[in-house]
Every structure is written in C-alpha cells, then in structure tokens.
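Narrative of activities, Objective 1.

The group set out to show that a structural description can be obtained from nothing but a protein's sequence at a throughput compatible with the screening campaign. Below is one input-output pair from the validation batch, recorded exactly as produced.
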Amino acid sequence: MVLRVTGMVRHAMKLRGVQKVPGCSWIEVRNKTSLFIAGDKFHPNANEICQVLNDMIALMKDVDCVSDIISLLLDEDEVLALAL
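Output recorded for this entry:
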C-alpha cells in the first residue's frame, strides 16, 4: 500500500514538473570533508562507497535491522545517496 502511494505521489510530481531539492550530507574523516548529494554518481569514490553501503545493508538485513522502508527512501536516481 505504502509503495503504491509513494509511486502515485512521485508520478503526480513528475506530471506537474515538481522537483524536490536533493538531500545532502557531509562527513569529516582525518581532517578531510566529503560532501554527498542524493543522486550524485560523480563522487570520486562512488563505486567504493556504494559497495561498502550495500555490504552494510546486507549485514543489517541479516540481523533484521532493515525494513522495507529503505525502498521508500530511494528512487532510481538516489542509490548513491543511501547507499548515498
């Protein structure tokens, strides 16, 4: 039910030309700051980041810490955002 409603909202937004502002976050490691923007596949370490996040999600699923809600948070262009 929730997935269907989410799809309907995204479709309505697309029809009306509504665009959401991409989410972003940053992290500082060893005095180096990295910025992550939802849908950004051009980060120099995008592939490595996605692999680590996918591994973490798999581990979380193994211990039942991840629900289906994750699929609601991602759309096709936001894999790097969760994932990225």
